[in-house]
Amino acid sequence: MSIREPVEPIANPSPTPRPNLRPRHTAGAKGLLASLLLAGTMLGGYAAIERGHAASEAATAAPATHAVMADFSEIVSRVKPAVVSITSKLKASAVDDEGPAPMPMPFGMGPNDAAPPHPQMIEARGSGFIVDPNGIIVTNNHVVKDAKSVMVTLDDGTELPATVIGRDARTDLAVLKVKADHPLPAVTLGDSHALKPGQWVIAMGNPFGLGGTVTAGIVSAKGRDIGAGPYDNFIQVDAPINQGNSGGPLFTQDGKVVGVNTAILSPSGGSIGIGFAIPSNLVKTVIADIETSGHVTRGYLGVAAQPVAPDIEAALDLPTGKGGAKGALVANVEPHSPAALAGIEPGDVITAVNGNAVADPRDLAREIAGLKPGATAHVSVLRNGASQDETVTIAALPDEPGAAHAGAAAAGQEHLGLALQPLSPEARAQLGVPEGSHGAVIAAVEPGSPAEQAGLEPGDVVIGVGTAPVENPEEAVKLIKKSAHAHHAVALRILRHGTAAYVAVDLGNSDKATRSDKG
Question: What is the phi/psi pair of residue 34, to 5°?
């Protein structure tokens, strides 16, 4: 399965064809029989209800209690005029490798008649919604990214050219502006924090070019991380969301927007009931920044962080509470960054920012991003098992931040199954190790060893053990033995493809580890 952005690229620039509504063939006689049996059951049940109703009129029975299904018609009629369809024209080379999404074919049209064989320009269709009567529209960044022109179609069919005021790739949001000769209908952004799993929500948009489509479902979960970016905090819904729904609003029953539909989990590109929306509280912040300056300004700390896995926890001798240690483990600190100037070090575990608890790197990213450049932040860290606070002056997040994120693996014993060699100038150049960095290059990893189980690879550069830096292979071996003796685990800080990360090697009962003398 894959996470897909439900924007709908269309190869044929002509108006959307009428969909083929012919039913699919069943998968043989058994499938047909099952369908007929199901239909028979439904019809039979209906007849029984009618007979029961007639009997009840002849008898004096107590009235039955009927469940009332949700009816969203009033809400839909009120908010629908503010929901728009968006068509972006872009070069064919800008479409991803998966190509245009399949469209229902109209009657009488064959697959070879759908579009020119090599179109120079294609159309990508998505959705959006008006948040200001003066023509401010919210949609997804991927709906308008690389667009040569953008056209907005209002609910009444009016087409208006749109200007992209600003885009934010990190949250996949964009703000557009259209000009009309009268105030436009607009909707209000609600409080996504107040959403609860099980609550009814309504998705609206332009799936497969079918503008004005309404679907309903419930909030399945909150705070989902789907790997889309450092600020993932998606609302998961089971309301059907399909290609072309990207950028459309997610409403609660009071008619307020609590999310922007942006992605689906699907093996085929169609809805299977797992959709994701950007929370409205994040949308408010992004819109405000883009309207003010055309871009989003975020705080910058200058660290690469990773979760505190149980094996890392043991290797770094971290105090644990119920459910294990919480926080963001600092794997790397950018030189001259706010974190470096404040004295934050690799191996520190950041547990809070300005008193707000940090459970993992995502929490840290959101807390820092929400701070304005120049602001003073109090960052709580665990260092060598002790808690302390560092005062940091936040900077502005660069357009292309140098800090990268990395994960960690686990497994291991004192002799890890590694062969180390010095970091020569040739190795430094080949492995892309920055000038001024020191360490020991992993020349070989013994098959089946704790090091291999931990995910270490030849070419990784060991630059630290625990919180201590490593200058050369001899120092690395010395520190590894010391850490193994104290913790029965080793936390190696490595460089791989220029990215620093901690990898925990669990010192379990490995036979191979006891007979290896390679360090």
Answer: -60, -40
Cα separation of 365 and 122, whole Å?
36
Q: How many CB atoms lie within 10 A of CB 140?
A: 28
CATH of the domain at 506: 2.30.42.10
Phi and psi at residue 517, to the nearest 5°: -120, 25
CA 474 to CA 493: how far, in whole Å? 16
Same domain, 305 and 239: no
Catalytic residue among 155, 172, 348, 506: 172
What is the domain-level CATH number for residue 263?
2.40.10.10
190, 200 contact by CB (below 8 A) = no
Tally of CB atoms within 10 A around 26: 13
The domain of 196 spans: 192-282
Q: H or E element: which one contains 56? A: helix 29-58
- For 206-251, what is each residue's pLDDT tens digit? 988 888 899 999 999 998 888 777 788 899 999 999 888 999 999 9
pLDDT reading at 15 higher than 90: no
Q: Is 438 a catalytic residue?
A: no
Q: Which amino acid is at 462?
A: V
- For the segment 407-421, the average pLDDT, to the nearest whole number, is 51
Asked if residue 182 is part of any domain, the answer here is no
pLDDT tens column, 37-81: 222 223 233 333 333 343 344 444 445 444 455 689 999 999 999
Cβ distance 337 to 305 under 8 Å? no
Closest residue by Cα to residue 325 from 363, 289, 360, 291: 360
Domain count, the chain: 3
- Across-strand partners of 152? 86, 160
pLDDT at 113: 37
Supply the pLDDT for residue 182. 94
Query: Are residues 364 and 326 in contact, defined by beta-carbon separation less than 8 angstroms?
Result: no
- DSSP annotation of 68 reads P
Distance from C-alpha of 121 to C-alpha of 93, rounded to nearest angstrom: 9
DSSP H stretches of helix in 59-114 = 73-79
| Amino acid 312: pLDDT | 80
Of the given ranges (99-108, 167-176, 273-282, 376-385), which has the lowest mean pLDDT? 99-108
Q: Active-site residue among 142, 311, 380, 510?
A: 142
Question: Could you tell me the end-to-end alpha-carbon distance of the chain, in angstroms, rounded to an integer?
Answer: 41
**pLDDT the model gives residue 326:** 83
Give residue 326's region: left, alpha or beta (phi > 0; psi -120 to 50).
Answer: beta
Backbone angles phi, psi at 269, to 5 degrees: 100, -15
Q: Is 511 a catalytic residue?
A: no
Rounded Cα distance between 513 and 464, Å, is: 21
Kindly report the average pLDDT of the chain as a whole number: 76
Known catalytic membership, residue 2:
no
Say which of 85, 192, 220, 246 is annotated catalytic.
Answer: 246
Q: Which residue has the higher pLDDT, 392 or 99?
A: 392
